[in-house]
Specification:
Pathway: Glycan biosynthesis; Cell wall biogenesis; peptidoglycan biosynthesis. The protein is of the alpha+beta class and 308 residues long. The protein is built from eleven helices and 14 strands. It folds into three domains: 86 residues, Rossmann fold, CATH 3.40.50; 66 residues, 2-Layer Sandwich (Dna Ligase, domain 1); 120 residues, D-amino Acid Aminotransferase, Chain A, domain 1 (2-Layer Sandwich). The model has no long low-confidence stretch (mean pLDDT 93).
């Protein structure tokens, strides 16, 4: 049992100015309510509304980062908090930056021999010279296009021909200067939350949408979540091991969530790792924690207690 009186003055950072601001506001509000309900001396703070240096005058001792996307999940806020001498939740600067960059993360996993789909990287400077038909052919004819450093499926698109790839690249370049084009994996999508180096029960997501996009994640009433996910004990062990390996390879720490696809042959493929996942009552990490016997408040306090 964690003695919340030892946690000191706490700030929940939420909002920010990334494309995921609205999701972050919801996460932060839920975490703040949970922490206050558990007796933690916690306040909320939106870095888009005031400079982060204001935290010094507030005598804050530790921060729960509920920011998503650029500026909050990419190492920027983590570095600022280190300069200010404030303990914070989740990964350090390196792990946050690597996990946010899908291209760098993918390259690390590939080089370490971890299972991940074939891919191509396209830079905005080379956009005019890209042979979209050739790229698509090399990736099996169907691909997923992803801006390198966005989350919540922002700017992503499935493509099945050269014209669609060209348009998807143009869209993705509005969000980032580098784009990941990844071979499409047909199959079930899973996610594995990790807390203090321990994988939680896997979750399987099912949506009638083309893929598990922003609408399916945050707006749809038709997305289904299964926890337990339906994997047998051996498969659950396999996916947990893969997720933990991916998490550690990217220098992620504290807590996080690894997204994984499984093809029709039963092989698992790493998609990405999130260092500041959604934290509403209906989010995936709390869902997995509940399956493991942990309430939302207990999860929030445990994450906070791991601040370093």
């Amino acid at each position: 049992m964690i003695d919340v009186s030892t946690l000191g003055k706490v700030v929940v950072l939420y909002g920010g100015d990334s494309a995921e601001r609205e999701v972050s506001l919801n996460s932060g509000a839920a975490v703040l309510s949970a922490l206050q309900g558990a007796g933690v001396d916690a306040i909320g703070f939106d870095p888009a509304k005031a400079p982060i240096t204001d935290l010094l005058a507030m005598k804050v001792e530790r921060a729960f980062i509920a920011l998503h996307g650029r500026g909050g999940e990419d190492g920027t806020m983590q570095g600022a908090l280190e300069v200010l001498g404030i303990k914070y939740t989740g990964s350090r600067v390196l792990g946050s930056a690597l996990a946010m960059d899908k291209v760098r993360c993918k390259q690390i996993w590939h080089d370490l021999g971890l299972s991940t789909a074939p891919y191509r990287v396209v830079d905005s400077a080379d956009y005019g010279d890209v042979d979209c038909a050739q790229v698509l052919a090399e990736l099996g004819g169907v691909a997923m296009v992803k801006p390198a450093c966005e989350g919540s499926s922002v700017g992503m698109a499935k493509v099945t021909n050269a014209d669609e790839l060209d348009k998807a690249l143009a869209l993705a370049f509005k969000y980032d200067q580098q784009v990941l084009v990844e071979q499409w994996i047909t199959g079930a999508e899973y996610t594995v939350a990790i807390l203090d180096q321990q994988p939680l029960p896997s979750i399987r997501m099912q949506t009638p949408n083309t893929f598990y996009d922003y609408q399916a994640k945050y707006q749809s009433n038709t997305t289904q979540y299964f926890c337990p996910s339906g994997l047998n004990a051996e498969e659950e062990s396999e996916i947990a091991k893969l997720a933990l390996s991916a998490y550690q390879a990217a220098s992620v720490s504290g807590w996080g969530r690894v997204d994984i696809m499984r093809d029709s042959n039963g092989r698992f493929y790493l998609l990405e790792v999130n260092t500041s996942p959604g934290m509403t009552e209906k989010s995936l990490v709390p869902m997995a924690a509940k399956q493991a016997g942990m309430s939302f408040a207990e999860l929030s306090v445990k994450i906070l207690a791991g601040a370093h």
